[in-house]
Design a protein that fits this description.
281 residues, alpha/beta, UDP-N-acetylmuramoyl-L-alanine:D-glutamate ligase, six-stranded mixed sheet, three-stranded antiparallel sheet, 8 helices, 11 strands, 37% helix
């Protein structure tokens, strides 16, 4: 009987998020992104959605105990190098995830606070928002709200870069270790994003706006790309810059493609890299 001598492991990313039946966002976008960046993707599904490029038709929440079992099954056998958290629609789901992070001492957690749909519909209730801030902000290395989500969190609209700076400081004061505030919803031909850290670091990142109607799933894609970078042992700033470049290239590559009658997906597979290998310690 032969025994294999194992020398390597894949960089592994767990996505805890909702399923998008249309394939453009949520778990599906996360898996495509993680694979395209050479990492091994795993999932713990928080909710099933019936949706397409035109919008969400129905949401069916997964029972908290099943969510907990999914996380336990993955972590206890396969192991996790980084975690991306997406749609958490109810307080008990948030609590289940927070308990799992502690139970398994999960590190390198990226929290994408999915609260507002592209259509403007609010996807989370106020009690869940309060629990999300209290339980997950301190447990994540990075929180990645867009302007609408940040406005919901700080309780006021954000109109300019000064508003973004003030909101980032307020989110750090609410317990976040680092915030990537995405400014894509501001008007203008230049997109400004702000990475602010609790140590006082402020990194403005700007790039020309990419004209495209296919922007469904950009937030999911960005947060899972950052998690992939962290799984590859990149420092936080490097992981954010890599992820922004990946999203922009995926947007450009998918801008001229028609998928459905509404806002289509990015081209996640525009330049996939082979699965990376990490030495087995």
């Amino acid at each position: 009987m032969s025994h294999t001598s194992f020398e390597f492991e894949y960089p592994r990313v767990l996505s805890i998020a909702g399923s998008d039946s249309g394939g453009g966002a949520g778990i599906q976008a996360d898996l495509k992104t993680i694979a395209a960046l050479g990492c091994y993707g795993m999932t713990a599904i928080t909710a099933l959605t019936a949706q397409n490029t035109l919008g969400v038709r129905a949401i069916h929440g997964v029972p908290p105990e099943i969510l907990g079992h999914q996380i336990d099954a993955v972590v206890e056998d396969i192991g996790v190098h980084a975690v991306k958290i997406g749609m958490l629609h109810a307080p008990e789901i948030v609590m289940t995830v927070a308990a799992a992070i502690d139970r398994h001492a999960l590190r390198k957690v990226v929290l994408d606070p999915v609260m507002v749909a592209t259509s403007g519909a609010v996807l989370i209730d106020n009690p869940a928002i309060a629990v999300l801030v209290r339980e997950l902000f301190p447990r994540a290395v990075l929180v990645t709200p867009n302007l609408d989500e940040a406005a919901l969190l700080v309780g006021r609209p954000l109109h300019n870069v000064q508003d973004m700076e003030d909101a980032a400081a307020q989110l750090l004061a609410m317990g976040a270790h680092a915030v990537l505030l995405k400014g894509g919803h501001l008007p203008g031909d230049t997109v400004m994003d702000l990475l602010a850290t609790s140590e006082g670091g402020k990194h403005w990142m700007q790039a020309p706006r990419i004209p495209s109607a296919n922007t469904h799933g950009t937030g999911c894609t960005l947060s899972s790309a950052i998690a992939a970078g962290l799984a590859l042992d990149m420092p936080l700033l490097e992981a954010v810059e890599m992820a922004r470049a990946y999203v922009r290239a995926a947007m450009s590559a998918g801008a001229a493609v028609k998928t459905g009658a509404g806002g289509g997906p990015l081209n996640h597979g525009h330049a996939p890299v082979p699965m990376r290998l990490k030495p087995l310690l």
